[in-house]
Amino acid sequence: PAPHLQSYKNRAAKHSNPAARALLRCMEAKKSNLAVSVDVTTTKDFFDIIEAVAPYVCLIKTHVDILEDWNPGVTTRLQHLSREHNFLIFEDRKFADIGNTVALQYSSGLYKISSWAHIVNAHPVPGPSIITGLASVGMKLQEERGLLLLAEMSTKGALTIGSYTVEAVRMAREHRDFVIGFIAQHRMESIGLSGTDDVVDEDFLILAPGVGLDSKGDAMGQQYRTPTEVVTQCGCDVIIVGRGIIGIGRDIDAEKVKEQARRYQTAGWEAYEKRIVT
Ligand code: 5IU
Q1: In whole angstroms, what is the distance from residue 44 CA to residue 125 CA?
Q2: Alpha-carbon distance 35 to 236, whole Å?
Q3: What SS3 class is residue 11?
Q4: Can you give the pTM of this predicted structure?
Q5: pLDDT confidence of residue 181
Q6: What is the C-alpha separation between 76 and 9, in angstroms, rounded?
Q7: Does the predicted interface ipTM exceed a cut of 0.95?
Q8: Which residue from 37, 93, 125 has its CB within 8 A of the most atoms of ligand 1, so it is best to mutate?
Q9: pLDDT tens profile 61-79
Q10: 11 among the known binding-site residues?
Q11: Using only C-alpha atoms, what is the Rg of the chain?
Q12: What does the mean pLDDT of the chain come to?
């Protein structure tokens, strides 16, 4: 059966990439396909949110460059929490430069992303060299590391459509050791195949942002779909939720955040259970 019809557990047992295996195992263990996007600007809010949602998530998605008081201790503490609460870390860096530059952006600078992020993502726009550049860093580490390509975006008018998405999938198929899946809005198995090609052993994870239970979008082009649409109907594996859980006000209410995380975890898991057959 196609990957999205199989259990996360079965897929974990077969996957060739260690980061993908770790994520799928974590999802099964915690009964969670929820990633929380922690888009806040202070480390206090950042950790208040992570500590509130940790029991309910398989993945924490970060934008470390928006933290105004970032320091190296932040990523040390994040890694510690990741081990303590069993979740993976995804830095939503959206690399987009030539191979040599992205290798440096991934490994070096203030953030040294490759040293702590299990998963990162990249725009396919520069072509396959962006994958080989990032893989030259990630695959050398004796750690669980994987890359997601941005095959589709959730925003109104996104240019990630048609042949762009097809080429993104082709690029990923050429680098299945390091590319573990896509940021996308639906499954990609049927994309770019002639009908006779055989890629039955391919298992790309689909992580979908733009998920909300109470809102259809924001004032800046974001569009939301429900966990049922995203997971049951479109076959995505992980729901990425930001403001639906962390809120949009200034003050973080940890109890509310916890309650919303639990709500999205349940909705995401029920949507998954409705779609699997094995
Ligand atoms: N994000 C999207 N859409 C995309 C991609 C990334 O929303 O197509 I690629 C990011 C942006 C933000 C998070 O960090 O996912 C969604 O946050 P909200 O749930 O608050 O909209």
Answers
A1: 35
A2: 12
A3: helix
A4: 0.96
A5: 98
A6: 29
A7: yes
A8: 37
A9: 999 999 999 999 999 999 9
A10: no
A11: 17
A12: 96
